[in-house]
Amino acid sequence: MYRKINVIVILSLFITICHSFAQTTADARLLTFDRVFSGEFQEDFERDIQWDITGEGYITIEKSNSIKGVDELVHYTSAGQERTLFVAAEKIMVKGSTLSIESFTLSPDGTKVLLFTNSSRVWRSNTKGDYWVYDLQRESLKQLGASFAPSSLMFAKFSSDNKFAFYVHKFNIYKQDFNTNKITQLTKDGNGDIINGTFDWVYEEEFGKRDGFSLNPSDTHVAFWQLDATNTGTFYMINNTDSIYSKPIPIQYPKVGDEPSAAKIGIVDLSTEEISWVPIEGGEKENYIPGMQWVNEDLLLIQQINRHQNQLTIWSYTPSSKSIKKIYTEKEDTWVDIEYPDVSANGWGNNDLKIVDAGKAFLRMTENDAWRHIYKVDATTGKKMLITPFDYDIASIQATTNKSVYYIASPNNSTQRYLYITALNGKEEDVCITPKEFSGLNGYNIAPNAKYAIHTHQSATNVRTVRFISLPDHKVIKVLVDNAAYSAKLHSLKLPQVNFSQVTTQEGITLDVRMILPVDFDATRKYPVLFHVYGEPWGQEALDAQVGTFNIFMAQKGYVIIDMDNRGTPCLKGSAWRKSIYRKIGLINAKDQALAAKELLKLEYLDEKRTAVWGWSGGGSMTLNLMFKYPEIYNTGVAVAAVSNQLVYDNIYQERYMGLPQENMEDFVKGSPITYAKNLEGNLLIIHGTADDNVHYQSAELLINELIKENKQFDMMAYPNRSHGIYEGENTRKHLYNLISNYIIEKTPPN
Known about the structure:
The protein has 12 helices and 45 strands. The protein is of the alpha+beta class and 751 residues long. It has a domain of 255 residues: 3-Layer(aba) Sandwich (Rossmann fold), CATH 3.40.50. The strands form 11 sheets. The protein has an 8-stranded mixed β-sheet with strand order 38-39-41-40-42-43-44-45, with helices on both faces. Strands 15, 16, 17, 20 and 21 form a 5-stranded antiparallel β-sheet that branches. The radius of gyration is 28 Å and the shape is globular. The N terminus is likely disordered.
């Protein structure tokens, strides 16, 4: 009996261990939220680089080999990738500690390095901080603006002769003699309402403007923006958590319909320190100035766009004679784009025009015909010459040589992007530079000499990789990031299949579709559907891009995840596709999505009774419109940081695409989700950060009030002191995505 019991116990224990092992093995192929946010699935990214002025080499930040855990600068040659130490960690010690290098720039002659550290956030980015200069010849380290408060300098830069440094401090521009440390204040009226050398919130958000001053090549003049935000309304966010007493957080924020900040360009004559103002026609308050750049020591190009943003004027200004000339005008019935939104763009642009032909011409992308084309414009006469006479869209200009221009396009598939080259004379064919094996999304950081580039690639079936290449042969010189470990981690999971297709609505509109199928997909079963949406002019979602862990998690739970791009999104489908949304945000984009969803739900494996939709920002607005206007299609919605009422968003964005509410108020009312809140039938979760300086928490509260008035039940989550990205604070992102997934699973359950 005793022996028999032992055998049974041992056998039972063995079976339990085997079952546990099998369960553990099975579980290892499935994601949990703890795993998603544990750091287990960690991508590698390339380091930021600065090219040599020649492009024959570059400098990057690496961890020191001699002092553990600290930064130093390393130089690589482009052709051979030979590595040499550029600035050793021990050379940038301050009071026994090495500076943490957040970014850096070289002086024009390469003998000094400007190090940016101890930064603090201004709007979206950390653009305020401390600057230190390391002199490579003297092997010395010196702080700029040492007498000012810590973390208070912006956009420091050298004169070309290295004798002076210039920077912004508290809305004014300063010059510092590098040898004597003498500081000279060049502008004196900056106070927060008057802004010199940098920008207000809306210029940064909607024009990508941050650094607001520029030194000419001969060090004789500084050109700078001045904004007068005196009449801009102040919006107050409330901080309720950092003290037992609440604190108002003021932000200058021009709502749609409010006049823009007055903008003008000042020129400082550095020999006299006198300021003159460029006499641009059209007034300061009903126009924007999104671009300004030196062409040579005595010629400035200034881009001006009117309040309606449907007319661009480019001026040339000569400081020596104080003469101004209108050289180019471009008009559209809808809007004129300054910075083109595209997935291939490298960061926030400065809107500078590409100067070609030794300063005699510049490049401009326009949409005055069926496609977005590149034109070469004579800088004296304004005469245009088409240099991309091809029947497809140009996504972005990447670089130029003496004879050619590199650009991004994808003539046959709008979900992808590739590098092309053609001649500046407009008389040669286009050549695709990206090899065929890199099918998907491709981005490039091209050297000043256009002989080398850093190439990034990803697709729905390939993780993001980075390599250093030569051009135009696209030969791989060195793989910088292979993400092999990350790829192996992903492939240890049960991964979903990703399909690309198109769907045509009953109105004849054809949308690109990216469909992520559940793992172990069986076409004879019925699956719940999760639509992920954006749908406005600044985002394209149905892209041939790698699938993230959140989507893998939801696919493992049994959802079909669908992304589609409606009219008005920056797809490479022609100007009419993109511009058709003018004055119709919330109307044609929501209709396209709903009618396309209706067609897709005819597929037998999609369960039309279990449909959820979610999106962020413009996608949050889309989610609300779909839930309110098409309740027969969508059962559950999660709207994150949504604009519920277009009248509370900023003037530059909303007026660009919708006009002025003083002139066409009915379009704003018709396009706003709040107008249709009374129609809510399904499950709705509203999520918003209370410190969202982009889409104010006010937008959520206005909608909540309307839903209450209409006696509509809903759910909501406020994230205290979180911005538009809802990432600040420990565990925030994990909590957020757990909330989203739990809500969808609860309200629209899988099988």
